[in-house]
Design a protein that fits this description.
Elements lengths: L6 H17 L4 H19 L3 H18 L10 H13 L4 H5 L4 H10 L7 H20 L30 H7 L3 H6 L13 H12 L3 H5 L6 E3 L5 E5 L4 H5 L14 E4 L2 H6 L1 H11 L19 H15 L10 H12 L4 H8 L17 H8 L18
Antiparallel strand pairs: 1-2, 2-3
Helix pairs in contact: 2-3, 3-7, 4-7, 10-16
Amino acid sequence: MHFGGTQREWTTCLQPIISSVGTASGTFGELADQFMQLTEEEATANRTSEKWVDKQRAHITLLREIVGDAIPVRDVDYDACLRVRSALARLPANRSKLYGDVTIEEAIKRGQAQNKPLLSPFTQERYLGTLRDVLDLAAKKRLIAANPAEGLKPLKRDTVAPSAKRLSFKPEQLKLFFENTFYRQCAKHSPPYAHDKSGWRFWLPLMCLFMGMRPNEACQMTADDVRCTANGTWYVDVVASDEEDENAGQASKTLKTTFSRRRIPVHPELIAIGFVAFADDRRKQCAGARLFPDLKPDGYGNQASYALRRFRDTFLPSAITLEPRQSFYSFRHNFRDELRRIGAPPDALQALGGWSQGKLTSDDYGDKSNPDYQVQFMKQIAFPGLSLSHLQMSGS
């Protein structure tokens, strides 16, 4: 079989790959280098966010510091993995911010003396997971017989269930927030949403609460993403732009997971408040205009970064008293709580909120993401004690 090109040309083409494989056969540092090379290659191919890649780099950097770059891979045994686990359990959180470039031993010593908070069990598990992945690569390359980090868990168990990492807002908090000074000022205008020239301060909490959207999903939307089915169901099209869009000068979009691709019916409350009219206003200004053009992406391309900081530092605490584990994301958790309350099926959780429920038998039958189908559940979403009549457009 002939693939074209001479043997010398093929050897030259493959040399970087051969070299990278060969250099990973000795030390832990070399193995870590190849792991990051593969990670970055996969991230580029799958358009994974740079922020996620940077986290992997940070994990690798700390693991290399604990294990040691010069340690032969064959010497990274179960005892070495236990030493990593022990160091992670004693390491203060935000070590670099607190102590700069001091050694791990010095950071642990200072953290203990000053009684600084330690890395959470969740964060420790992330580091141990990366260690498992690195040593799994070593096992696949037959540099070690088995992965000694397999099944390794943090020393201290996490006492907070994953579902409770962030808590929903209480009914009285929601009521206070949407009746605060800002929204009361909006209510004096016609339509109320016009009081907020940038739009995001008015709409983001409403979109996350009544439609379960992630902040960046909402912030990166264009007016053209607000659409209507042939049956008259208004919905937002949460999609990622492809390479053709980017080449044509369209602003790129990112999604957290593959389950984030969905068409979300616009909640009747938002229609009454004027969301569709707001999108039409933006569309008339400029074809393909963003809903919130004032928001600029951060270094990772996240359009919601500035807005979330403003809500965290000013808008939320000035309106309500936040309890532990409450944040802007609590609006989205309220939405999920309501889906559970109404007994929405798993396919609704996935279609409306982008929460993966695992592979379901029903996945292969019909289009459960159809807005005309999912709107039946959206119409049932309600929050006791919350009235937004003061924000509705005249005649709604």
